[in-house]
């Protein structure tokens, strides 16, 4: 059982979240994962290790390649993550409701 | 329902956010273009503020929003306005700096009359499906990103 802390620590890095987003679309090799980030292979491997240690991804042996895919815990963590981001956006608009109400009230007072 | 937000993907490269507001389009448009008003709401989670808010709301004008959590954490967004139709429509391009810039996000925001209020529809277009997936995962929008930085502070 991996700790939630390890999962969220792994998710705190934007590159690692992007790697998970890529893996959400299917299995990929280290080379494929590194391409969009213009990162060296060791840098990508380092991120993959963090994700693996957190139990978010798993590897498979295929000849000389070690393609990675999302673990179930990775899918759950991404879902939780997106729910949290969505909440932050909702929070902005709830605040905007208050700002708008203030402006409208002021307009009515001026009439 | 008055205030429920929707967030969905469309095709390979679009993200669409809708939200209803109780004020008319003119007021909602102003709250999206007047820096003094933007600084009151575009903040993400509790504890974050926007000390720098530059917004030249005219075609070709630039904007720059800088956020901080007051504990050394922060990031910023820069962008340019493409089209503005007061009080109905804003088209702009933006990118987040983390600190490396993310790929450009093209955003069209519409403010349509909806009874006494406004229906806002924000349509984002990313360069490709991969960028969209990364952006959704990275926190795509202003305050959304703040929550990830907050999380970093928590762990």
Overview of this structure, please?
The complex is a heterodimer of chains A (111) and B (155). Chain A has 111 residues and is mainly α. Chain A has one domain: Arc Repressor Mutant, subunit A, CATH 1.10.10. Chain A is built from five helices and two strands; from the N terminus they run ααααββα. Chain A has a two-stranded antiparallel sheet. In chain A, helix 1 crosses helix 5. The N and C termini of chain A lie far apart (64 Å). The model of chain A has no long low-confidence stretch (mean pLDDT 82). By secondary structure, chain B is an alpha+beta fold. Chain B has a single domain (6-154), classed as 2-Layer Sandwich (Alpha-D-Glucose-1,6-Bisphosphate, Chain A, domain 4). Chain B has helices at residues 25-33, 35-41, 129-138, 142-154; strands at 6-10, 14-21, 49-55, 62-68, 74-85, 89-97, 105-114, 117-125. Chain B has an eight-stranded antiparallel β-sheet. In chain B, strand 3 and strand 4 (62-68) form a beta hairpin. In chain B, helix 1 (25-33) crosses helix 2 (35-41). Chains A and B meet through helix 1, helix 2 and helix 5 of A and strand 2, helix 1, helix 2, helix 3 and helix 4 of B.
């Amino acid at each position: 059982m991996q700790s939630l802390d390890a999962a969220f620590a792994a998710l705190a890095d934007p590159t690692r979240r992007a790697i998970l987003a890529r893996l959400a679309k299917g299995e990929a090799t280290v080379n494929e994962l590194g391409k969009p980030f213009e990162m060296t292979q060791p840098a990508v491997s380092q991120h993959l290790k963090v994700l693996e240690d957190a139990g978010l991804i798993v590897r498979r042996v295929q000849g000389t390649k070690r393609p990675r895919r999302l673990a179930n815990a990775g899918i759950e963590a991404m879902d939780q993550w997106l729910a949290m981001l969505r909440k932050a956006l909702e929070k902005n608009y709830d605040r905007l409701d208050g700002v708008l109400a203030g402006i409208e009230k002021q307009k009515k007072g001026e009439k | 329902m008055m205030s429920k937000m929707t967030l969905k993907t469309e095709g390979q490269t679009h993200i669409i956010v809708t939200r209803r507001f109780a004020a008319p389009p003119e007021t909602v448009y102003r709250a999206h273009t007047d820096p003094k008003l933007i600084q009151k709401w575009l903040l993400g989670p509790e504890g974050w503020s926007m000390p720098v808010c530059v917004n030249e709301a005219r075609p070709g004008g630039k904007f720059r929003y800088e956020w901080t959590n007051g504990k050394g954490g922060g990031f910023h967004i820069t962008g340019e306005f493409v089209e503005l139709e007061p009080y109905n429509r804003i088209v702009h391009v933006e990118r987040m700096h983390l600190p490396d810039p993310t790929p450009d996000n093209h955003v069209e925001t519409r403010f349509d009359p909806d009874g006494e209020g406004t229906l806002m529809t924000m349509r984002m277009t990313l360069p490709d499906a991969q960028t969209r997936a990364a952006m959704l995962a990275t926190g795509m929008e202003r305050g959304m990103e703040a929550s990830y930085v907050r999380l970093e502070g928590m762990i």
